From TrEMBL:
Its main location: cytoplasm. This is Glutamine--fructose-6-phosphate aminotransferase [isomerizing]. Catalyzes the first step in hexosamine metabolism, converting fructose-6P into glucosamine-6P using glutamine as a nitrogen source. The lineage of its organism: Bacteria, Pseudomonadati, Deferribacterota, Deferribacteres, Deferribacterales. Keywords: Aminotransferase, Cytoplasm, Glutamine amidotransferase, Repeat, Transferase. GO terms for cellular component: cytosol. It catalyses: D-fructose 6-phosphate + L-glutamine = D-glucosamine 6-phosphate + L-glutamate. The chain holds residues 242 to 607 of 607 of the full protein. GO terms for biological process: carbohydrate metabolic process; fructose 6-phosphate metabolic process; protein N-linked glycosylation; UDP-N-acetylglucosamine metabolic process. GO terms for molecular function: carbohydrate derivative binding; glutamine-fructose-6-phosphate transaminase (isomerizing) activity. Homodimer. The active site is at residue 361.
Amino acid sequence: EKAGYSHFMQKEIHEQPRAIIDTIRGKFSLEQGTIGGELLEGIQHRIKDFNRIVIVACGTSWHAGLIGKFYIEKFAKIPVEVDIASEFRYRDLVIDDKTLFVAITQSGETADTLSAMRIAKKMGAAVAAVCNVVGSSVSREADSTVYTHAGPEIGVASTKAFTTQVASLFLFALQLAQTKKTMTPDQIRHYLKELVRVPEVIEKTLKHEDYILSLAKKFKDAKDFLYLGRNVNYPIALEGALKLKEISYIHAEGYPAGEMKHGPIALIDENLPVFIICPQSSVYEKIASNVQEVKSRDGIVLAVVTEGDTGLDALADHKIEIPAIAEELSVFPAVVVTQIFSYYVASLLGLDVDQPRNLAKSVTVE
Ligand code: M6R
């Protein structure tokens, strides 16, 4: 059932182009620049009343939520808060019937996320879910569920569930924008055209697998890693670090690159590999200066850059290229690079990639 791959995680990494096609299929018309389908079913009639969106999740799904915030605020101009379910649950909340609550969960069974959703519902919020499992507790209790069609995810480390969540949130944000008329059909069409390129962009990124394996060989004995990103790729820094921690047991920190000088910069020395996610974007110059800061303290820079970009050649010790795509969607190839890297580090270390110690696929206790 691993279809020739050594581990489920590797198989699931490679399934991502297909999973994304399945997730976005039938939900939009490229010709008309419109989004439709199941996305807002069940909450459509309340959309004009929402003055705020609260996204709640755990782990990797929380990282998808952080990206969703960028999409919704940029496209639909609705303020978004993103919270960790176990924090949301035990706080004095300000929630009412003008709040749209969105739970993101692969399994639909995560105890904290489910409880958070119940609390929000009780307080009058409309509750939507982005979920991978039909018939799961969260999907049964939500007013509206957007299904990610990732197929079963066996590896404990989430890969294709994450990218399909992000693709769903992208469409969700565009549909909100369409309903609220914050974007024209032409603008929506532009982003849809970029979205349909994502599967091919991931395929091309997967072609760098051998190169990324060679980096995993080089760095598998490092004691710590730092992952940096900005803007929409800041959550990818968090996700890259989480993936490395959970399957390779190497300490890793993900940080917004601009925040580095407020603390983590003290960690940098000639032994610290620093993954920097810096595709061409509106914050490219900003992050380039962060690369400079790392290099001037002798950190080892592994830069994820857009194909053909030579701007960081003088500073990067290693450069991993990803295909050009709209900045908002660069998260897809970027996260795939970090997934492959973590996968190879863990498998070179001889660890149980699919069933890492101390972890369960779905955390049904708090
Ligand atoms: O099923 P869920 O999406 O609710 O699970 C949330 C987290 O437990 C999950 O994403 C966890 O962080 C993964 N092991 C990350 O790879």
